[in-house]
Design brief:
single chain, mainly alpha, 0% strand
Length: 93
């Protein structure tokens, strides 16, 4: 069963679905960074790893979180541009 909607509305719905899915993925990856942070703190509190390993884990946490933010931001900007292009094309026609 197909539902027919205006092209600009379809573009807006597609944008909304993409952003929601991206936000869920952002949350999952951020959750992994938080879990790595908690693991690092646990290792540090119990002296289970040498200092260079702890610093490496902390660096990995920061890189994971920063890459997650950058990719999410880039994706939302790219999807916004696509949405604007589709809406302006629909308005022009």
């Amino acid at each position: 069963m197909a539902v027919r909607v205006a092209e600009s509305l379809a573009a807006a719905l597609r944008f909304a679905v993409h952003v929601v899915v991206a936000a869920i993925l952002f949350g999952l990856i951020s959750g992994a960074a938080v879990a790595l942070n908690q693991l690092t703190l646990w290792f540090e509190a119990r002296n289970l790893a040498p200092n260079f390993v702890l610093m490496g884990m902390l660096g990995l946490e920061y890189v994971t979180w920063a890459a997650d933010i950058a990719c999410f931001g880039w994706f939302v900007i790219a999807e916004s541009i696509k949405l604007c292009i589709l809406v302006f094309r629909a308005l022009r026609d």
